[in-house]
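Notebook entry, structure prediction.
Reason for the run: the old model in the group folder had no record of what sequence produced it. Starting over properly, with the input documented here first.
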Amino acid sequence: MPRYRIDIEYDGTGLVGWQRQDNGPSVQQAIEAAGAALSGAASPVYAAGRTDAGVHAIAMTAHIDLQKAFPTDTVRDGLNAHLRDHRITVLEAAAVDDDFHARFSCTGRHYRYRLVDRRSPPALEQNRVWHVRHALDHEKMQAAASALLGLHDFTTYRSAHCQAKSPVKTLTQFDVERVDGEVVCRLHAPSFLHNQVRSLVGTIAQVGLGRQGVDWPRQMLDACDRTLCGPVAPASGLYFVKADYPA
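New structure, fully documented this time:
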């Protein structure tokens, strides 16, 4: 079966996440249905990351196996034609070898988290940001985030339902800055644990709100105790930005 790499943009609002599930619509389900409609046969799809319910993607990389070969523009436009009832768009398509795997070939994942810290709730960005009603000190958040970089046991910052074999991960970027009235967090790692990004952001937000000291998130990391994690940030502010692959 010909294999195609596809880069996908989607709004996760109302979806159960990337992975096909029995309790609601998913991104994977919608794209596999579009692939089957295009090629006339089952079209399995695999992604670089498995985003949770309500999480968005700016450019999620996936691969799809179609029953027959098509020009790449036809793959992109044909899938989009069958996705028109969903807030899911295929941005690009490219033919790849069978040894390319969107998940297992991936060498790095980039995420972005957006917070709006103002009294009034967002109207245009509802379900796309975390609305925090009090001012955040992003410089203190950055100081707290910097102490979490590197190779660590991230047990404190992973879901109790995480299925990863090891809690040890390398966090290579955790930047916090203020951009046009928002506080934006940018994170990069070869891979992440389940709920790791939202757990990290929710914890350093407590520092930005003045409820905890700058050293607190690192102390919680070193404790390796999930019960000590700060509140998990809501899904609405999280975006999968891009995946890295060998040249």
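Summary: The first helix runs from residue 27 to 39.
The old model has been moved to the deprecated folder.
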